[in-house]
Design goal:
Blueprint lengths: L8 H13 L3 H29 L1 H22 L3 H15 L4 H10 L2 H30 L4 H22 L19 H6 L2 H34 L4 H33 L1 H16 L10 H17 L1 H11 L5 H29 L9 H15 L1 H11 L2
Helix pairs in contact: 1-2, 1-7, 1-9, 1-10, 2-3, 2-4, 2-14, 3-4, 3-5, 3-7, 5-6, 6-7, 6-10, 6-13, 9-10, 9-12, 9-13, 9-14, 9-15, 9-16, 10-11, 10-12, 11-12, 11-13, 11-15, 11-16, 14-15
Length: about 400
Amino acid sequence: MLAATWFVAYSAVLPLTQQAWGLSAREAGLVQSAFHLGYLVSLFVVGFIADHFGARRAYLVTGAAAWVAPIVFVLFAHGFWSAYWLHLATGLAQGGTYTPALGLVNEHVERARRGRAMGFVIGASSAGYALCLGLSGLVLGFAGWRAALGAVAALPLASWLLALASMRGTPNVVHPRPAGEGALAALPAVLANRRGMLSILGYTCHNWELLGLWAWLPAFLTAALAAGGEGPQAAATAALALGAVTYLANIGGSVLGGTMADRWGRTQTILLWSCVSLVLSFSIGWLINVPTALLVVLACAYNFSAIADSSTHSTLLAESVPPHHVGVAFSVRSAIGFGAGVVSPVVFGWALDLAGGGRGSGEAFAWGIAWSTLGLGALLGPFATWKLQRAK
């Protein structure tokens, strides 16, 4: 939970940094995408490290960088280019807290409970996102956006210290490779695994939608409140509080989705929730001017459904490849899936600008077009999962 807080820290203050630095919606999206770009590179590399040195060791060693980089961002980001490169660096430092964590669950939890356990890991991340938005909103009530980012930046340090203490008795497992197989041989083996690659395609579509949602939801809620008459600072503060509520819905979605996957099947669970989230991607933007309470309910349902199949994607991929290839499979998935997450916030912002909705506009047409780009990018996801369901 604490490690995940930085993931949405920039999007929590995006409307305020956009105004302070004079950024277009496209530039604001690029700064968010820089994090995802660094994150996907980090995840790709860390997967190989986890396979070679063990998930526990990879988690603890890379966790040190995960708390240093956010502090550097808070101190030295002062405009588009500095924010871009420093946010890229924070992404490069964060990957060790994700892939090795999934590997630890896969190693130490039996299959019958694994989907639910993955759900708790993803749910804890969602709790971290809610904590980030709640803490940011609290600090914004009496200080500026930089102070809010500083408060969030302290939490990954607390996470790393807690991990040092809590993992003292956790064994570090290194799965042996077949005789003569080098570390890089796992890469073509994963690429040739049909079930694994179908799972990765489904996850890529899922990530396009989910990471675009997380990047732009606070700004969307801010625009909705501003259109209702709130001032910029008050709208941003209220949007963070409401956004935190929607991330609490993520926790329920993660746990329920993982539990459903254990009871009723992996692919059935993914198909259900991916279709529900698609409906919301194509509809929520057009509804920006509905009453705030209804908009928050829709945002909660969107976050709930978009995250509900996330843990199942992770479980399904881990079960589709040999144990000594799990880290590399997560690396391949991260490179492709988070690559989509790098692009989708930029496409969203570009569409928002083109439709006339940049810089906080509450125009339903502009937001409807922008949110629909997430649905378009996610359309292939259910098809890939259906194909995987039929694959032998």
